[in-house]
Design brief:
Strand order of the largest sheet: 1-3-2
Radius of gyration: 12 Å
Distance between the termini: 12 Å
CATH class: Mainly Alpha
Helix content: 40-55%
CATH topology: Arc Repressor Mutant, subunit A
Number of strands: 3
Order of helices and strands: HHEHHEE
Strand content: 15-25%
Shape: globular
Length: 86
C-alpha cells in the first residue's frame, strides 16, 4: 500500500498512536511475531496487544499461524485490493 492509502485508512479508522508504530514496523518487516514487534517497538506488552487488536479489527493486518510453532501467530499487512471496506 502507498503512504497516502495508509494515511486515509488510519484517519478513517481512528487508529491509536501505538498501532501506528506497529503498522510502520509491519510495513518494513512483514511478517512479524508479537515478540518481534515487542522487541523492535520497545512498547509495553499490553500496548502491543492492544495495537494488534485494533489493527485486526480494522482489517489492516491479518493474523497467520506460524508454521515453525503453531501455538504462535505471525502478523502481516492485509491487501486493500481484496477488502472493499477501505
Amino acid at each position: 500500500m502507498e503512504t497516502e492509502e495508509y494515511k486515509s485508512i488510519i484517519y478513517k479508522k481512528r487508529i491509536p498512536p501505538s498501532a501506528k508504530i506497529v503498522l510502520n514496523l509491519l510495513r518494513k518487516n512483514s511478517p512479524l511475531s508479537a515478540n518481534a514487534i515487542l522487541k523492535e517497538s520497545k512498547l509495553a506488552p499490553r500496548t502491543v496487544r492492544y495495537a494488534l487488536k485494533k489493527l485486526l479489527e480494522a482489517n489492516i493486518i491479518q493474523k497467520l499461524h506460524n508454521l515453525d510453532d503453531m501455538r504462535k501467530y505471525l502478523y502481516v499487512l492485509s491487501s486493500i485490493s481484496n477488502d472493499t471496506r477501505f
